[in-house]
Amino acid sequence: MSDYMDGNMLGGKLGELFTMDVTSAMLTCVSCGASMAIAQARVYPHAPGMVAYCPNCGAVLLRLVRGPDRAWLDLRGVTCLQLAVPLS
Amino acid sequence: MGIVSPGFSGRRRDANEKLPPGQYLVTDFPVLSAGPTPRVDTGRWEFSITTETGKVHRWDWAAFQALPIEEPTVDIHCVTKWSKLGTHWRGVSLDTLLAGVDTSAGFAVAHSYGGYTTNLPLADLVDGQAWVAFGFGGEPLEAEHGGPARLLVPHLYFWKSAKWLQGITLSDHDEPGFWESLGYHNYGDPWREQRYWGD
Amino acid sequence: MAATREETATARTIVLDVPGWPGHLAGQHVDVRLTAPDGYSTERSYSIASAPPDGGADPPVVELTVQRLPDGEVSPYLTQTLAVGYPLELRGPVGGWFVWNPDGPASTRPVLLVAGGSGVVPLMAIIRERAAAGSHAPFKLIYSVRDSGALLYAGELTQREQAGDGLEVSYVYTRTAPPGSSQPAGRLNAATLASAGWPPEESPAVFVCGPTGFVEAVADLLVRAGHGAGAIKTERFGPSGGKP
């Protein structure tokens, strides 16, 4: 069932934690090695937090919880995050 | 608080003295899910309780249905602030399931089909506080609400009532589950508004 | 909100004064938050429909086109309650991936836009930006809707196509085709993609937007037709018509 959305929608909530655009950040799945933009991850938005899954193998890539005064970000499902930083 | 949107009231909800702090009453039954909905056929469904010594107690669907069944009516409270009062469920009490289980463990982790986990003290699963529920509102529990069977622990925030329940593991140590390891409160008492770490 | 335009019986464009707007890229979205007097709040994402403001308008203006969902919590407010002068809380612009930039290095590269229902909104921003920037990059839009009553921007798309500057638009009607249609009603398929789109040898940049099921099906057809997965950018709106 196609009840998920994609990582484009993480741009707002994650964008509050990063200074540059996050939807085009590249990540590599720890489980299967697939590489993709955050925008391409499968995101289930209706939960106490946001969870993004690898579209290739289904593993959890990242999780985000927003409290009123804190945010928690779990990136254990990615090997690293590559962000485009504007040249200064 | 954000900018108030003139004329906006959201889905029908009321503030109510019977509700824990910060909660709103809803008339529908919101579906919140951290991932894809597992589809588990009752033909292959199995529920197990694993003790701290590794002993496994298992029930298939038929064995489960043959156990004494209760029909609790309870209030449920989600950490995302919606509450429903007087919801009707059908299921087997954890007291029934644990009756034949020899354990001195203090902690439990509930595991779901699909990988979700949540932790709670064993003391919160017994004495009429918890059920493995397979019926809601007089109907079989729908997959999107956790069917074939989910844990039902109404005195804690509803993320503790793990959907698509597959088993419960008993342990001498506490192991934070899926949301408890990412900012959500380890215990989760709605009446003390224990939503996040440190609350 | 400064003004509003009815687009269909169930959709309207809201025109927002956004003082201090930092500008945006076509394809980006905003997160809209509504708050009730008792503090209850909820958020939804909406694609920006307008091209980036050219710096002439004061204050700058951003447009959102909102489809009213029968079960919705936010869309009924935005399409029926929000009135001129009311404030609206936005976060954004958001998104750097699903964007088209006329000044970008591949800006004369052919572009294929495939829209499912309200997925046409960010693609319309891209089309409007192309015109505002005076770009002649060859563009094809394939726009899938249930029937002609659901078409957003119908008049404007016809006008822009008739301007003859390299935009072609094809319509796919999934439930009821209008009288005189060359095709019977039916879902977008490989044949339509081939006849109304670019062949893979043209290496178009592809943008697909709409409900999740639509986007997955179209992306699959494109890859099978030989388009590189890396050239296809997608934005999913979640199941169509379902609760947000």
Quick take:
The complex is a heterotrimer of chains A (88), B (199) and C (244). With 88 residues, chain A is mainly beta.
Characterise the protein shown here.
The complex is a heterotrimer of chains A (88), B (199) and C (244). Chain A has 88 residues and is mainly β. Chain A has one helix spanning 10-15; strands at residues 5-6, 26-29, 35-37, 42-44, 50-53, 60-66, 71-74, 78-82. In chain A, the strands form two sheets. Chain A has a five-stranded antiparallel β-sheet. Chain A has a three-stranded antiparallel β-sheet with strand order 3-2-8, with no helix packed on it. Chain A is globular, with a radius of gyration of 12 Å. The relative contact order of chain A is 0.25. The model of chain A has no long low-confidence stretch (mean pLDDT 90). Chain B is mainly β and 199 residues long. Chain B has helices at residues 61-65, 94-98, and strands at 24-25, 46-50, 56-60, 73-77, 82-93, 107-112, 117-121, 131-136, 139-140, 150-152, 165-171. In chain B, a hairpin with a 2-residue loop joins strand 8 and strand 9 (139-140). Chain B starts with 23 loop residues before the first strand and ends in a 28-residue tail after the last strand. The mean pLDDT of chain B is 94. By secondary structure, chain C is α/β, with parallel strands linked by helices. Chain C contains five helices and eleven strands, in the order βββββαββαβαβαβαβ. In chain C, the strands form three sheets. Chain C has a five-stranded parallel β-sheet with strand order 9-8-7-10-11, sandwiched between helices. A three-stranded antiparallel β-sheet of chain C has the order 1-2-5. In chain C, strand 7, helix 2 and strand 8 (139-145) form a beta-alpha-beta unit. The two termini of chain C are 23 Å apart.
Task: Please specify the SSE layout and strand pairing.
The complex is a heterotrimer of chains A (88), B (199) and C (244).
Chain A (H helix, E strand, L loop, with lengths): L4 E2 L3 H6 L10 E4 L5 E3 L4 E3 L5 E4 L6 E7 L4 E4 L3 E5 L6
Chain B lengths: L23 E2 L20 E5 L5 E5 H5 L7 E5 L4 E12 H5 L8 E6 L4 E5 L9 E6 L2 E2 L9 E3 L12 E7 L28
Parallel strand pairs in B: 1-5, 2-11
Antiparallel strand pairs in B: 2-3, 4-5, 5-8, 6-7, 6-11, 8-9, 8-10
Chain C lengths: L2 E6 L2 E7 L11 E7 L5 E7 L13 E7 L7 H7 L7 E6 L16 E6 L3 H13 L6 E7 L8 H9 L4 E7 L16 H7 L8 E6 L1 H13 L7 E5 L8
Parallel strand pairs in C: 7-8, 7-10, 8-9, 10-11
Antiparallel strand pairs in C: 1-2, 2-5, 3-4, 3-6
